[in-house]
Amino acid sequence: MNSYTMSFFLSSLSAGTIITISSYHWFLAWIGLEINTMAIIPLMIKLHHPQATEAQTKYFLTQASASALILFSSLINAWTTGEWTIMEIQNPLSSIIITTGLAIKLGLAPFHMWLPDVLQGLDMMTCLILSTWQKIAPMALIIQLNECLNFEMLTIMAILSTILGGWGGLNQPQLRKIMAYSSIAHLGWMIMILSFSTSLTLLNFMIYLTMTSLMFMTFFIIKSNNINTMSISWVKPPLLMAVLMTTLLSLGLPPLSGFMPKWLIIQELVKQNMTTMATIIALSSLISLFFNYDYHIQFHWLPTYPSNFSHSWRLKSQTLLLTSYIFMLSTMILPMTPLMLNMMM
């Protein structure tokens, strides 16, 4: 794929997201979602591999079904209330259907099974786009509709996502599937706090986008697809491997960056007398913590095997610059918590 074609599809992705975020009419929002879906499909099949074709087919069928549900729910709401405005979902049936459609778009449990399989068939940079940019439009719609969506349904999906997101990552050797299940778990945290604090949802979403992007870029630099290749750490860049582990553990451990949104979410749930829910999602995060530590042990303590690439640890200057940014973002967000809280208030 040449640079002009790539620029066209990336511009279409940006346009679809911007149309959805800025629209007030359901038909315009649906058009933006469809542009997003159609623009990423050529990027998914640029490798001309059977796995990529399978991933593209699964993604298209899933997203088309979700878009059909969203359009159908908006039609029902317009038929019963005469309103096409996004913020005017008053019909209970429309609320349930649109919650289901947006959950499928995001990959929330129990509608999450397409996400690991699709990511497994793509290259790292397309996985990055699918796990970050493609989440922005449906998440923006969910945030706008947080008062109109079915609260009980959102809570059940949030709990299932945090549990199944951690459970699915256990004994998983493929890095793309690990990141897919990690994405599902993080989305569960965001949906859990959505009804109580949209600012915390946005903060968690921004940190998720940052950390996920950094993880995929690191995997792309070291050219690793599974745990077995990453365990050959003595021929990998030592600095980059250390930063990779810091970023991986920063997705939920203090004093690193990913701990901050979890801490604030649990605190807010306790204030809202949702102590049981806070306990459940906190315990479910221990599953993710377990397999993160397991991978950490595999990276640094298991015996490695000889490799012909004895000089692959030498990094280019651009890679060193990127590594410094990754390390800074992985460690410096938590100390800025008071500043961020003041900005949100």
TrEMBL record:
Compartments it resides in: Mitochondrion inner membrane
A cellular-component GO term for this protein: mitochondrial inner membrane
Any single biological process term in GO: mitochondrial electron transport, NADH to ubiquinone
Annotated membrane topology: Multi-pass membrane protein
Keywords, in A-Z order: Electron transport, Membrane, Mitochondrion, Mitochondrion inner membrane, NAD, Respiratory chain, Translocase, Transmembrane, Transmembrane helix, Transport, Ubiquinone
InterPro entries tied to this protein: Complex_I_Subunit_2, NADH_UbQ_OxRdtase_chain2, ND/Mrp_TM
EC number: 7.1.1.2
Top-tier EC class: translocase
Domain NADH:quinone oxidoreductase/Mrp antiporter transmembrane: 23-288
Reaction catalysed by this enzyme: a ubiquinone + NADH + 5 H(+)(in) = a ubiquinol + NAD(+) + 4 H(+)(out)
Example of a GO MF term: NADH dehydrogenase (ubiquinone) activity
Ranges annotated as spanning the membrane: 59-80, 92-115, 151-171, 202-222, 234-254, 274-293, 320-341
Family, per entry: Belongs to the complex I subunit 2 family.
Role of this protein: Core subunit of the mitochondrial membrane respiratory chain NADH dehydrogenase (Complex I) which catalyzes electron transfer from NADH through the respiratory chain, using ubiquinone as an electron acceptor. Essential for the catalytic activity and assembly of complex I.
The protein's name in its UniProt record: NADH-ubiquinone oxidoreductase chain 2
Organism encoding this protein: Siren lacertina (greater siren)
